[in-house]
Amino acid sequence: FPVTISGQQIPENLPKKNLLRPDEVAKYLSISVKTVYTWISTGRLNAYKINGTVRIKYEDITDIIKPYEL
User: Fold this and answer.
1) What are phi and psi of 41, to 5 degrees?
2) Bridge partners (DSSP) listed for residue 8
C-alpha cells in the first residue's frame, strides 16, 4: 500500500521514512551524492545533523522537485 507523509504520497522508490540519508536522496533524484552535498552547502537543500549524521527531510526533497512536476 502507498505510504503518505504530510499528505503527500511517497513514490515507490523513495524510502518510507521522514528523514533520509544523502545517498538515499541521490538515488531517488538520480544524482550523485556529491551533488546532494553541494546542494546542502549552497543552501539549495536543507539538511540536519543528527548524532553526527546528515539527514534530509522528505518534505525538503519534494520542495526541490515541485517546480519540475508536469
Assistant:
1) -70, -25
2) 5
Please name the helix (run of DSSP H) or strand (run of DSSP E) that holds residue 50, with its range, or none. strand 48-50
Residue 53 corresponds to which cell in the numbers above? 549524521
Q: What is the dihedral of CA 21, 22, 28, 29, to 10 degrees?
A: 150
Of the candidates 14, 22, 10, 16, which has an alpha carbon nearest to the alpha carbon of residue 55? 22
Give tens-digit pLDDT for 1-11: 444 445 555 55
Q: Give yes or no for a contact between 30 and 63, defined as CB atoms under 8 angstroms apart.
A: no
DSSP bridge partners of 56? 20
- The DSSP string of 26-53 is HHHHT--HHHHHHHHHHTSS--EEETTE
pTM of the complete model: 0.74
